[in-house]
UniProtKB/TrEMBL annotation:
One Pfam match: DNA_ligase_A_M
The protein's name in its UniProt record: DNA ligase (ATP)
Statement: the UniProt record of this protein carries the keyword Ligase: yes
EC nos: 6.5.1.1
Family note: Belongs to the ATP-dependent DNA ligase family.
Family matches, as Gene3D superfamilies: 3.30.1490.70, DNA ligase/mRNA capping enzyme (3.30.470.30), Nucleic acid-binding proteins (2.40.50.140)
Region (Disordered): 1-37
Keywords assigned: Ligase
GO biological process: DNA recombination; DNA repair
GO molecular function ontology, one term from the record: ATP binding
Top-tier EC class: ligase
PROSITE patterns with a match to the protein in the record: DNA_LIGASE_A3
Species of the source: Rhizobium grahamii
Domain ATP-dependent DNA ligase family profile: 145-260
Amino acid sequence: MAKSPRSKPLLAEDKPLRSRARKPRDPAQPNLPFDPMPARVEPCLALLKPRPPVGPDWLYEIKWDGYRIAVHLNNGNVRILTRGGHDWTQRFPGIEDAAKRLGVGSAILDGEAVVLDEEGRPDFGRLQNSLGGRGGKLTAGNAIMYAFDLLYFDGYDIRGMELTSRRYFLQSLLKGFEGEIRLSEALDGDGREIFTAACDHGLEGIIAKYKDAPYRSGRFGEWIKVKCIQSDSFIVVGYEHSMVARGGIGSLLLAARKGGDWVYVGSVGTGFSEKTAEQLRKMLDTIKSKKPPVVYSGRRKNLVWVQPTLIAEIEYRAWTHDGKLRHASYKGLREVQDNAAVYELDGPASNGSLA
């Protein structure tokens, strides 16, 4: 696989910035010019768009297919939090160890935990397997973190700085560092060409970020995501029982959210191995429901309805005219702790957006 184009280093000749761990602050000196370290920061989220913005005000990054995490480092103590705020430090021992070796007293790094395939591409299924699947308690020892933002650095909250300044400090922190925390490279150039290259390399897509924007929690359009292949989260509402299919599952029945209701959006019958299908069947049979959680007018037989509690990550090509997923493929179950957002319909299915 050809390497992604690299931007010109921000610190071409400078040495990496380093600091020594600071001692706990003296409460008798409340006016020390340091910012209190936040216990948690709600992440900045990217807005889904059909095409990337272009122009000199934007920089671009690879869209990593994994789990969004924040690494909190404070005087040698490390916490790794999921997007939903759950502590998964013990599940990423390699990333935890790397954070302790960064050589800075305090920092909060924003990024994505991924597992790479043989060609260096992130593989969500491998990450899930390394963690033991949904609800698993295994550690992902082979996971790495691609860091793309720095929110707190050496005693100072830098979220109010523009993105280019935050990346300056992030790059200086990771320059020459070897370990399970790596820099998510910023790519300069035409966003359309970068997006095409990402798709040609089999990647999920790109993220465009407004260079002068501060870090704001939530989804405000200062970060834009553009996907090569659609991949979103849907709720599992049942399965089609089969005597010949793997695990007895002919296909999973899926739904999206619309207001306070679930809307049936089709099924997926590919993407799971025999082992995965057997694990799914065991989970599904513990949450069977006598009544369907969605309005269903199809002609499928041997349907088994379940309570809408499992969230599946589904890759698909497009929507049909009647609001169903086209060419869907199962990628894995999302963790509740990952705060996975179920696809939300704000009108016709083809105009849906992530919650």
